[in-house]
Amino acid sequence: MSTRLRPQHVTTGPLPYLHYAPQTPGRPAPLVLFLHGAGERGEDLKRVTTHGLPRELSAGDPLPEAAHVLAPQCPAESWWPFELHHLSALVEDALARLPVDPARVYLTGISMGGYGAWALATKHPERFAALAPVCSGGTPLLASRLTDLPIWAFHGAEDEVVPLEESERMVRAVNAAGGHAKLTVYPDVTHDAWTRTYRDPAFYAWLFAQRRQDR
């Protein structure tokens, strides 16, 4: 059963964020952490809805399952990989305050946010049930930390901003270390690989099917 989410603007703490909350509060629900791209940095939270998952949710498109979605905003002069401590604290605070299923915490991001997602998952692989980075890359030397984490990456074949090789290199490194990563490449798509990703029912079916095991 699909559910529409209502956005709330939260400005306390070092990272202001949008919180899309289920209409049935009180029940434990999955948590999705979304990290935006470089163009959405700053102090205006509305910019976070420009692309990706927040754009789809703010347009009224429902998720197939009730879930909390957190979409923080990166400071104007910063970069998501520099904000890992604050992102970790945001997730832990949500787990403490919200009715979240701790076995179903998911991480996704686009472009700069995808780099941040790779970095945060590498730092805290035990926290997340799945990782879904879009048009981005990470650090192959640290791929062995991700071998127990289900990963589905996405990239446009004609990406002129972040080369496809960035995703290919990370997926190869994770799988070479014994992990479980897959990559979807969209032919004839440039940097905007996120529109097709976040409008694909198969993506959500895969994402919400993942559960964190003790590892």
Automatic annotation (TrEMBL):
Keywords: Hydrolase, Signal. The lineage of its organism: Bacteria, Thermotogati, Deinococcota, Deinococci, Trueperales. The keyword Hydrolase applies. GO terms for molecular function: hydrolase activity. This is Dienelactone hydrolase. It comes from the Bacteria. It comes from Truepera radiovictrix (strain DSM 17093 / CIP 108686 / LMG 22925 / RQ-24). The keyword Repeat does not apply. Residues 89-193 form the Dienelactone hydrolase domain.
